[in-house]
Amino acid sequence: MSLVERVKQMMPKSPVNADRLVTRVEALQRFVAAAEGRVPEDRLVAARTVIDRSGERLRLSRAHTVVALAGATGSGKSSLFNAVSGFQLSRVGVRRPTTGVAHACVWGQEGAGPLLDWLGVPPNRRFTRESALDGDDQATLRGLVLLDLPDFDSIEDRHRLEVDRLLRLVDLVVWVLDPQKYADRVVHQQYLSQFQRHRDVTVVVLNQADRLNRTDAERLLEDLRRLLDNDGLGGVPAFATSAKGQPGLGALRAALERTVADRQAALLRLNGDVTDAVAALEPLVVARASAGVPQPAVDRLSAALAEAAGAPIVAAATERTYRHRATASLGWPLLRWARRLRPDPLKRLHLEAGPTARPEATSLPESTAAQKAAVTLAAREVAAHASEGLPEPWPAAITEASRSRVNDVPDALDVAVASADLGLNRKPAWWGLVGALQWLGAATALVGLVWLAGRAAFALLGLPSIEGPTVGAGIPLATVLLGGGLLFGLLLAVVVRPFAALAARRARARAERRMRTAIAGVARTHIVGPVEEVLRSYDVARDALAAAAT
Ligand SMILES: Nc1nc2c(ncn2[C@@H]2O[C@H](COP(=O)(O)OP(=O)(O)OP(=O)(O)O)[C@@H](O)[C@H]2O)c(=O)[nH]1
Ligand SMILES: [Mg+2]
Q: Across 303-401, where does the E strand assignment appear?
């Protein structure tokens, strides 16, 4: 089996489709858009970084593969870098640490400039391989951008920062370990084990193997593989190298060639990043969708709001006003004016019979502390139901949403009550009929009265009295007219009274219904609506993360 085939076997990976990766990143973007403002920003930072980075990396160059040589000081990164490139490009030193700034060597392929700018490699540290002199010797590495990184265990802070920065950007990492420090805990805990989700783009070399005999090299490699297993990196390619002697660079070069040929490293890397981000976000959603806000809780909230808004008071005033006006319209005509002197109950609340034109001018009573408490409780109940089964921090976001418009609620309730049509601005038709009959009775009585008065005047003046017609047992018609007219008016007033009372109660019920409808609208726009908006965000976020996960 050839070396390349052996390496191929060591690097099994299922290819990542670029379109699929873009779909995953877009789903992650949808998650962030839905969750922002609901979830603390620090929980989203990693996802945002991945979104930005993948966008940039994919846009910059799919033709290049960026491979970093990372490791502790003195492990031989620069030596390997030089050996692979075939030139002394990066200084190999005795004084540690030697490399302070990343060096890059680009094999062929025009247009790596923007990529190197993005990576932050200074122009004087960029080299190009595959000059005219090389011919096709280096063709198998065409597209490779090899980076020699500073030491990650550096006593120099800025080295570590530089390494950490670049490790987030590169497509594939070759961890260069040496026989002395390959088991270093810091290396494994702080670096290698953090790359679990990037196992497809991780290669580990035990460098300086020329310093070991074959048996020791095998033993150390075995030990190294065991440590990698513990790091969650079991099965990643791990082999011995030497920049100076046996076993040389063969396996490393083969790994690099294969990586370049596959053109998969960038996609695999980003795919791993997305998987990482998704895993970090997973606790923010659970498997099932939100349950919504149950109608009974909304109804209880509307009822509490109706109380606080004074709807029952206005409804009672509507009933009294109906009766008041009915009495004024249906009572004995000559006494009606007395009724009219008293303002009707609605007017005392500065409400109009239909929708009130200026809701802000009403004088509805302030809601009591108990009513306010009932509203708070009902709103809390809505939030609690909506939050059921949702992971943190969604319940907090839901509670916040339920309170977000609380300050506008009193005014909105006043408007709802005032603008509800109380249904009293049109006189019922039967009032007209009864009113006309009342006038008829009164007119009859008046005719009788005038007649009797005429007769009395004639008698006073000693004029001969005119005997008018009589009714039944000699009762003069004038008396009958007066008495009958009065009695008729009185009886009519008594007879219509229960009908007016019934109609008044119906007017109250109708007014109350209309106000409650308007108040339910306030419950929806001011409390339930904002809560449902959070629930919608949750569902969108949950679906988006499920899409990003696969
Ligand atoms: N025998 C042997 N010596 C090596 C090998 N690789 C590197 N060295 C030596 O190890 C020392 C350090 O090598 P560098 O290549 O500078 O190591 P580095 O990892 O770049 O170190 P920093 O730049 O400080 O991070 C030098 O003296 C090299 O000659 C190797 O494969 N075999
Ligand atoms: Mg170096």
A: none
pLDDT digits (tens, 9 = 90+) for 424-459: 888 888 988 998 999 999 999 999 999 989 888 888
Q: Which residue has the higher pLDDT, 347 or 487?
A: 487
Contact 170, 104 (CB under 8 A): no
Amino acid in the structure at residue 326: A
Residues contacting residue 86 through CB under 8 Å, at least 6 positions apart: 129
Task: Identify whether the C-beta of residue 83 lies closer than 8 Å to the C-beta of residue 243.
Answer: yes
The band of 205, judged by pLDDT with boundaries at 50, 70 and 90, is: very high
Q: Measured between alpha carbons, how far is 235 from 68 in angstroms, rounded to an integer?
A: 20
Averaged pLDDT of the chain: 88
What is 438-463 written as a DSSP string? HHHHHHHHHHHHHHHHHHHHHHHTTP
How many Å apart are CA 381 and CA 372, to the nearest integer? Answer: 14
Contact yes or no for 174/252 (Cβ under 8 A): yes
CB atoms within 10 A of CB 8: 17
Q: Which two tokens stand for residue 107?
A: 């094999």
- Tens digit of pLDDT for each residue in 368-422? 899 999 999 999 999 999 999 899 999 999 999 999 998 899 989 988 988 888 8
- 80 alpha carbon – ligand 1 mean position (Å): 8
CB atoms within 10 A of CB 31: 28
> 121 CA distance to ligand 2 centroid (A)?
15
Best residue among 78, 216, 246 to mutate for probing ligand 1's pocket (most ligand atoms within 8 Å of CB) is: 78
Return the amino acid letter for 68: A
**CA separation, residue 274 to residues 25, 145, 267, 540, 546 (Å):** 7, 23, 10, 18, 12
pLDDT digit string, tens, across residues 77-99: 999 999 998 888 778 866 666 77
Ligand 1 site residues (CB inside 6 A) read: 71, 73-79, 92-94, 96-99, 150-151, 207-208, 210-211, 242-244
Q: Give per-residue pLDDT as tens, 225-237.
A: 999 999 999 999 9
With H, G, I as helix, E, B as strand and everything else as coil, classify residue 148.
strand
What type of residue sits at position 123? P
> Ligand 1: distance of its center to the CA of 284 in Å?
46
Q: Where are the beta strands (DSSP E) in 31-111?
A: 65-71, 103-107
Nearest to 302 by CA among 366, 373, 375, 372: 375
